[in-house]
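Subject: Protein entry, chain in single-letter code together with its fold tokens

Category: Structural biology, sequence-to-fold work with a learned token vocabulary.

Notation: Tokens come from a learned vocabulary of local backbone shapes, not from coordinates.

Start of record: The labelled sequence and token lines come straight after this line.
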Amino acid sequence: MAGWRVFWVPSIKTKVPHRLPALTGWEDLAERESSVGIRPGDPILLAPDHRVDELLGLYTHSSPFAAYTHETKRNYTTDLCLFLNFLWSRGKVWTQAVESDVEDFQYWRQQAPGNPNRVGGSKWNRELAALIGLYKWATRPGNAFVLRNPIQTRQVTGRHGEMVDVAALKAKDAKGSNVHWLTPRAFRRWVSVGLRGCTREGVRGPGWVGRLEDRNVAYAHLLYSSGMRRLEGASLLVFEVPELELEGGRYYVGRLAAAVTRSKKPRTFYVSVGVVGEIGAYVESSRAAVIRRAHAVGRYDDLPQRRLVTRVTGGPRRVVHWCDRDGVVGETPLTQATAEERMTFYTEGPRGPEPLWLWLNERGLPFLPHSWENVFTAANNRCREVLAPPGRRPAALVSGVVEAPYLTPHGCRHSFALYMLVILHHLMDERFGLTPEERRDYRLLYGDPWRMVQDLLGHATRETTCDIYLAPVADLQLRSLLATAPASRAGDAATGSLDSVFARLAREAEGIQDIDDKMAVAG
């Protein structure tokens, strides 16, 4: 059975091809959509019978839905389609759903033996949130598109003693099922094989093309080095990347805009000098090349939402001054610029306008944040094909050791948290040579390593850092592991001298991926 499909209103004005007579008269489609409040980036849902649901259309360009981030819109639309397909199999549409339909849908998604793709509590809660948003809008005063909200609620006591309504079907096992960590050497192998196209022996594989390889490697290293979320790293502008300095240290400092962080608060980030160099090399090589090709075909000439940035004022609160194609002049505080707005920022280059968005696709246009998932999926598939191909007898591996590392953009963030926790403990105990009394004073002044990691990640509470991001080591004695680590030698990299510590963590804690130390690792 064909299911519900989603089409996204493009940000680039669509040209109607003359060879398709059926589209004659639709040259002003963008203007028609704009006249009824349909904006670029809005989804349009098509039913299995090829009809557009008018009420769903009203919801997807309503104010509540418009307030979602671009990523949330994509996630919720996908989740809604799952429910719409479930109802369609029962001969229903969403306005006919009752409480038992939602209960049966939850059973199917989480427990039904016949469902090969059952989900955990976190994924179900996200799907439930998508349904809550739809039905809350449909039942609010002035709408009344459904007679009764099929999402049942119950009252619980809030953090401050107040009574709060929550969905009765909200899952309690909301811990992510795909939380995972890579040790530094496992991450290096993932990059080597998955993104650089190397073989098990660490040499380039035959026939490897590596389209925009330097971009993909730089982005993965950025997330692993800084702990940024996918959207945070994906929406950087060129001038937000720290510049290399002749007398620079090992880490450089940057600032994340409030509009692209989950907490909607600006946050300082730290990134290694090597990653800054990789990003600079990408900007000067493949990024410059795709911009030249885009100029050659006039790709930047017909972008209706292009805003040419005339200047960026300095100071602690930077402001972007711009002028659009209609001559309208405006300004946007940099910290308030959303990912969608950042994609419209261009600067005048030597050949004409060029994007300020750091990461570009092969057409020279902004690489959409959610598209990084495809890059990581392709790298995971290559790791599996090269390191653990079908039919190959798997090696006898100890606990925590994997042949084919697996990673997601958010997995980089988890791995960063683990890496920083170990390194900070290492620095306090070995490099600084602190006594127990000095360590106590240091914690009073600067906080303990757990609090430092919390601050680096931008978490509001210590519980999130400890219970989710560092769950596998929350009950381990890191200090005893570090006590057995080999002493650092002059010139040794911190991660190299701590490989044995990460290996022990992988053996003793669930979810941490390491590799056999006899396996070759390319840089």
About this structure: The first strand starts at residue 5 and ends at 8. The longest helix spans residues 409-431.
